[in-house]
Every structure is written in C-alpha cells, then in structure tokens.
Protein 1
Amino acid sequence: MTPVVAIDGPAGSGKGTMARKLASHFGFVYLDTGMMYRAVAYLNLSADKLSWLSIADFMAAVRKIPDANLRTDEVSLKTSTISKQPEIRESMVRLQREFAKNPGKKYKGAILDGRDIGTVVVPDAVCKLFITADVKVRAERRFVAIKQTNKQATFDEVYENLKKRDEQDSSRNIAPMKFDESYVLVDTSKETAKESFAKVVKIVENAFAAANMKI
Ligand code: DC
C-alpha cells in the first residue's frame, strides 16, 4: 500500500501550506486538488475531454498556467460551479487516485489536499487530517495576506466570501466537505503556523507507526 496522507478542510484554513510543508518534511509528493478543479475551469475542459486524459497529460497542461491566473475571482466563481458536476468530479477522482497510487520513485508517498480526499478519493489513507480554524480567524489571516498584494478588499468582504464558500462546499449534494471521526481534527485557531506544523508532524508519524509503515 502506498503511504498516503489525506487532508481536507475549509477555504483559508492553511491546509495547502501545511500539506506543502509536510510533503517536504517527509519526502512525499504533494497534489493540490483545488488547483485541478481551478485548471478545469480555466481551460474550459469538458467532461468528455477529461475522461480521456491521464494524470501526466493533465499535469503537463496545468503546469503551463501561471498560478495567479488560477486564483482570480472569475476563475474561483467558475470553479465553484463546475466542481458540482458529477462527470467532472468522476474524472478528477480517477486522476487523483492514479496520482496517489504512483507517487514516483523519488518520493516515499503522496499528500493530497482538498474537500473530499478522505471521504471519496482515498478513504483508506493511512493518515487523514481535517484542518480548520474559526471563520473569523481564517478571514483575518487571509485579509492580512491580501493587504500585502495589490488586491483591494475589506475585512467584511473577505469574511463573507469565506462564509459563502464554506456553505457551498459543505452543502452541495456530491462529495461535500464533511468531517467524520476517521479524521484527526486539527483546529489552528489559537496556534501559530509553527505550533500547528509541529503538532501535525507528530500526528502523521503516529499514524504511520500505528499502521506499521516506515516512512
Ligand atoms: O482549495 P481551493 O479553494 O483551491 O478549491 C477551489 C474550488 O474547488 C472550491 O470551490 C472547492 C473545489 N474543490 C472541490 O470541490 N474538491 C476538491 N477536492 C478540491 C476543491
């Protein structure tokens, strides 16, 4: 069995940063599945076209897109709509499972993050983390990050936007974001990034030790 860490959680929870740091710490390869949905929206890929693609072809196309182009408000909005389509999700799940099964010789395992990784994509992952924080705290962190860029936004706009995305991601019919007891819940509201990371490294080490897997 391939060592896999599944990470889910709401927008702005810092799960992407955490996943990237964990991947580099443990020598795992990382897949940002939100970015995959964004790329489908950006490239206008139809469900039919997606059903023929391999993960290698898909990633080759995605790598050519500058990250900022995937994170505009327009793409975010479109992504939220296309990610509700069952045929699109079916292809995404197939590609993500392909990725999780074959991390490549250079890597010891795979880390995937998104909304349905531990529920649908790899429910039998050795370690499943649900990373969250209070919506006000997430909005504050995002607001601080936005202020360091050229983008304009008020705190209230950032807060309302996150609340709306939480609502959409957890209430949709197909593959909603949903915490259950198979996850370890990590609430970072009252912690610094450094504290959360140290805590999560221990959780991952313990999960693999309990499964008798060396990483
Ligand atoms: O994580 P993110 O904000 O980049 O995700 C972009 C969108 O894709 C968001 O609307 C939720 C959706 N998404 C999803 O439906 N399933 C995933 N596994 C990852 C993201």
Protein 2
Amino acid sequence: MLKVKIAVFVSGGGTNLGALLEAQKNGELKSGEIRLVVSNRADAFALTRADCFGIKTNVILRKGKTPAEFEDELISLLVENEIELIVLAGFMCILSNNFTEKFKDRIINVHPSLIPSFCGEGYYGLKVHEAALKYGVKVTGATVHYVNEIPDGGEIIMQKAVEIDETDTPETLQKKVMQQAEWVILPVATEKVCKKLLEEK
Ligand code: GAR
C-alpha cells in the first residue's frame, strides 16, 4: 500500500514520537510511514526511541549556523528522503516563513494547550502549563495544528480537553496533558492528514 513518507522533528524526550511509533506498529497509523527522525540536539532521548524501532535518525545542530543555513540542511535531508509530511513532536525551534511556505499544508505540530490559549512565541514545554495554572483555567488540553508562518497559528486539526485539579503542579499537569491528550490525538491527527494526502495524490 502507498504510504505518505513522514519525518518527525524532535528536541527532547520524545514521548510523542513514542506514541507515533507505537501507532505505526499497531496499525493505527496506516496511511503514513515514519521514515526519518530529525533532532536539533545530539542528546535527545527521542533518538534512542527511534533507534529501538529501527528508524533512521539524523542530528542537525542549529548552534553556530545562521537560521537559513540550519534550514537549508533540514531541507536537503527532507528532499533526499522524499519526505511528504513533517510532524513536529516537541521540536523546540521556530521555523521561518521560507521553510513553512516550502512545505505548505505538510507540517503539523502538537502543542500542549487548547489553542488559542497559552500559545505562540515563548510558550513551550513546561512554560505552557505554568501559564495555565497561573491564569487559573480549570480546563486545558492539547492541540494538533498545521504549521504556517504564525507560531501556533495554523489551522486546527484536532483538540482534546483535560481537567485541571486544584492540586496540580506544572509537572503533574504536563504529564496529564501528555497522557490524556497529546499521545491520544497526535497519532489520530497524523493518520487523518496522511489519509487526506493520499486521497489527493
Ligand atoms: C510536549 O508536551 C509537546 O507538546 C511540547 O513539548 C513536549 C515535548 O515532549 N511542545 C511544545 O511546547 C511546542 N510548542 P516529548 O519530547 O516527550 O514529546
């Protein structure tokens, strides 16, 4: 069966990558195939997760390069591997307009809040949950969305809500949002986008 060739971009622990790899293994992700995992950090545990599943990995460091040089390296790697969809799964670099235009409607991202709350520049990782608790919202969640030139501003594909308890800390909330929302919707949204891309072929 024809499958959409996917690259997953990571920077850290890679639990969302783990959810995608599991989904590929159990057939939940059937319209796409994870071909490549790319990290901007050499010590990202996500790389070990990819290795365990026999997926090709690549490290492209940003340090010491201009943003354009960094992105040119990414683009060469994507072209070389004939990548058709990029999934940002905890990738902590903002991509330029030039990059997002090149892969229009072919980049998706998972964000740990209900967009348009607690998103945009400066909202990443634990900071998102700190902000949600500080504001005092009673419900948060996760969003999978297309990536365009506006940070966290592209069309929403899927969202899932998570209730906040009075006893939650940023750390417990982060864990809950991952378990109850991110790891659930990222594989489903990825399959949905891959299916759509195949239908358009
Ligand atoms: C996840 O919570 C992801 O949503 C978030 O970083 C974490 C990465 O965890 N991404 C962002 O905040 C992007 N704005 P992981 O490496 O275990 O998947």
